[in-house]
Amino acid sequence: MRFREFSAVLAVGALFAVMAFSFLGTASWPQSPTSIPVYDPNATSGRGIANEMFDAYAVAIILIGILLGAAMIGGVYLAKMDEPGKVGP
């Protein structure tokens, strides 16, 4: 390996080690599993994450979905577009 590749691998490894230590080393994890209210079918408490997102931000979520769909279609179109004058892969 060249020096540049070795230093890049070393830097990424050090960054991964710091992230792993910060996530796992200092966090106090609960001893028993806890429940996260994702959806409340009764919608009386408003505690569900899905209830809050789709009630308060329904229009924003729909617009983000349309934008991401258009970006995906555009990315596929650009990836398949032939460049004039290009030879080979």
Describe this structure in words.
The protein has two domains: 1-27; 40-83. It contains three helices and no strands. The chain has 89 residues and is mostly helical. The longest helix is centred in the first third of the chain and has 23 residues, at 3-25.
Would you kindly provide a brief summary of this structure?
With 89 residues, the protein is mainly alpha-helical. It contains three helices and no strands. It has two domains: 1-27; 40-83.
C-alpha Rg, in Å? Answer: 23 Å
Number of helices: 3
Unreliable runs: none
Beta strand %: under 5%
What labels describe this entry?
89 residues, mainly alpha, 2 domains, 3 helices, 61% helix
